[in-house]
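seq:
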Amino acid sequence: MEIWINPACSKCRSALTLLDAEGADYTVRRYLEDVPSEEEIRGVLARLGLEPWDITRTQEAAAKELGLTDWPRDEASRDRWIRALAEHPKLIQRPIITADDGTAVVARTEDAVRDAMSR
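struct:
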């Protein structure tokens, strides 16, 4: 499994601590440095079963500068949202764990991390 993290994020650090405590086998992707492509974001969204606006941190400065809260949340606007996430990776909700079974979870809680480990 892979976990997308921002090391400055307390939720990410908590998820890593739990993964380590449970002896989980995982790789870390510091997605602010190793920025996911639009195609990778589409793949993760498919694995999550979510839309790009569902994993967008709308309170970030970049979101406010882009006016994201006013963007339509529909199929016609989907690519625009994905492009924004790829161009401004700080907007991506974290941490995201891609599980071995092909699914993924936004692992902001201990339960979500445990769910990812059980897949």
